[in-house]
Amino acid sequence: MTEEKPKTKKKSVNDAKALKIAMGRFAKGLGAAAEIVNRMHLGKDPTAVETLLAVKAGVTPDDTRFLNALGELLQLDSKLLDNGASPETLRLVSQASDEDLRAFAARAVKLGVAVDTAKIQRVESRRRMPEESHEDKAAQARWASLQSFAATHTTVLLHRLEARAESLLAAVEKFILRFAPGDPQEGFDMETHRPGYFQAHADIAASAVEVLADFDVIFGSRDSFTVSGLDDQEGVLLQNSRRALTRFASGKFGHKGGFAFDAAAEGVFSADLIQSLAYISTQQSPRTSSALSARRLRDLRVLELGAGAGGQAIGLMAAGFRHVALYEWIKPRADTLKANWDWPVRHVDLKKVPDSTLARYDGIDLLAGGIPSAMFTTRANPSHRGSENDLIPELLRAVRAVNPRAFMFEGYHGMTFEPHFDYLADFKSQLADFGYIVDIVDLQTSDYGHPLDEQRLVVVGIRNDEQGTFIPPILERPIRRFISDALEDLVIRYESPAELRGTFAATTAQHQYDAWARRWRDRFKDKLLPRIPREGTETRHDRLEEYNMEGFQGGELAAEATKVEDFPNDKDTYYLPILTQAVLSRARGFPDGWTFHGEGGGNVDMIADALSPILAKIVGLQIYSALTGVSFDLDAAISEPIIKEFWIGKKLRLNAGSEEHHILTQVEVMIRGEDAFSRISDPKARRAKLQELIEDVEPTAPRRTYLRKVVDRIRFERELQHAEDAAWQERRFPDGVPKGREDWLPET
Q: What are the residue ranges of helices labelled H in 367-460?
């Protein structure tokens, strides 16, 4: 890309601003014309109006119809053109095929989001997808395909194949649960040293031989199942099912090839063989399960690079994405991630991660990452591009190596500033060349309930071969919470109870504190904090000075809120409290229980760099929609709890924590077994089954007592969480959960 001279770039930026102003004026003029045409149509023959305007005003009939439709939209929403819009965008809005689509396009125009023909077509295509649920359509297509491949007289055999495949799948899942490592940090080798491994491996191979024989009787042993006139994708899925059966029957899985089609030790974390086996197993109809259960079964996978303090990770987890790994090279930030949640965190410099390691995540649903803000401030020197702090080349390398279905890279709004817009444009261009439809979304933090006047930029890409499209998040009802409302309890900690106010002498510190509290609360009831400062972008002391006008003393940070005894006894009811880390953390949107493990200003830098969890969730939901066709009520989504705060910092959880991984694996097997055996009515038979299970899970008798204690502790924590969820549900829905809103319930 040819480097533009600074003066040329500045002129380009100014020209862009001038064009935006001109387009705004043009749109308003077009709106005025639309109102005239709309008025002329009242009670008159449309053909007569079109003829009159063609003769007297030189307006074509097509333009007349467009202006009339636009006038009707303006009658419904007079503020439609406040942000300006291009004629092409307005034409698409007025000609949208149905009311809902027109409403979407109109909201996009009001937010200044560009809408073109391709975007409308992809939205229309995706809207047609959920007429039947995504699961219904997939199940129907699958069954129709299977029946078309099998002769009529093989229907009974087909049902038997499904049942046997289901039993095989259950055995494989149990095998993985008991013998696979927990995450890449523990290596890529199966735990072959554990008792029962090789016997379980042989049993799966023997079972697969039988299922493969049934498969070949029904479908034959051909290499391809793509048939003319049928959905090629279904044929590919059936072909992959046979490949999976062949691998299991040959014994080339687990320690002999993982669970990916391309056999390798690293493939133990792949689900290729399992997913292909699931295609021919008995599948429960989605109509028999709740919306929440169906959604949990469709968790998408995400790999996150430069995960920071976890803001983006929290939001993506809440949006239905399961992390396979989080890479973070700054140790205090990696420690923060590990201390707060049981994610598979890898403390490593992304620049030192080879392509071969990234390629293990080939085809993952989402690749997420963060772009360091220090690269894109007004003071940042473009010559720093390519330096060790520049992650743009690494993100491009990751997209090329991983080939994700979608990516999401969040960064500072300063990427659109004059010195950097060409670099952003080049970044977008290269991503598009990799085969992605790329959108750049500017999000206003204060629209999502945070008392923070800040914009964040998110670069989103959906692979070209995906059917859906990414729609920038648009809220019907933005949530505005200002300083007093959102932060009051963190600042005013020692105010007198209402019944005691006014009883303290005017000379006392408590009287002064109470008077100040009332004044502070009133002064900042409609104000927002400025952007959180970060060392390296500007001097923190200078940046904090901006807080003097927004409710806090600038230039320093305090460990805790101002106490009564520290309050100045000079009738200074305009006193500004010293800013605290807790205030900044909540302003960013972190849960109050989230802890940061840096030193000095490192924690503030973490908070400053982080993407608000709720912003990450909203963008994540739209990506989820693009990949699955499932739609979400975004306004409802931002009102839901972002995370189960009970689990923050807890270490006694499955697949991570203070207990060794193999013990937690044993615990999971025990809990599931106990739940299954609870249905046995005979107490003696039930006890025998439980004893047999624990002896199988833990061959060493002395360790069984400890294992039982761990099982009891985890059961207790789960029951406690269930009670908290039930109490939350009762508070929120005292009259019962509204029909169709079961997805609002907390996950269990």
A: 392-402, 421-433
Dihedral sign of CA atoms 208, 210, 211, 214 in order: positive
Q: Strand, helix or coil at 580?
A: strand
CA dist list (Å): 643 to 316, 584, 624, 659, 711: 11, 19, 18, 23, 24
Q: Is residue 16 part of a domain?
A: no
> Three-state SS for 184?
helix
For residue 679, what are the domain limits?
652-744
Same domain as 638, residue 514: no
In this prediction, the residues of the chain whose per-residue pLDDT falls under 50 are 1-2, 130-132, 229-231, 284-297, 536-540, 652-661, 741, 743-748
Query: How many CB atoms sit inside 10 A of residue 264's CB?
Result: 13
Of 287, 306, 325, the residue that ends a domain is 287
pTM beyond 0.70, yes or no: no
Q: Is residue 322 part of a domain?
A: yes
Structure-token pair, residue 484: 């007093």
If one counts the domains in the chain, the total is 5
492 and 571 belong to one structural domain = yes
Q: Closest by alpha carbon to 72, among 96, 53, 45, 56? A: 96
For the record, the structure tokens of 55 come out as 């003769």
Helix (H, G, I), strand (E, B) or coil at 452: strand
Q: Which residue has the tokens 């509290």?
A: 517
Examine the fold and report which residue of 241, 256, 287 is the final residue of a domain before the chain moves on: 287
Distance, CA of 186 to CA of 182 (rounded, Å): 7
Same domain, 552 and 619: no
pLDDT of 536 reads 43
End-to-end CA distance of the chain: 51
| Cα distances (Å, whole numbers) of residue 693 to 171, 272, 676 | 15, 30, 11
Helices (H) and strands (E) in the chain, counts: 27, 11
Q: Is 614 in contact with 449 (CB distance < 8 Å)?
A: yes
Give the pLDDT score at 662.
58
Q: What's the rounded Cα separation, in Å, for the pair 423 and 722?
A: 49
Element (H, E) at 666: helix 661-677
Cβ-based neighbour number of residue 538 at 10 Å: 15
Q: Locate tokens 């002129």: which residue?
A: 11
CB-based burial, 229-256: b 16+ in 10 Å, e otherwise: eeeeebbebbbbbbebbebbbebebbbe
Please state, as a whole number, how many other Cβ atoms lie within 10 Å of the Cβ of residue 616.
30
Instruction: Note the pLDDT tens digit of each residue in 326-382.
Output: 999 999 999 999 889 888 899 999 889 999 889 888 889 999 998 876 666 555 555
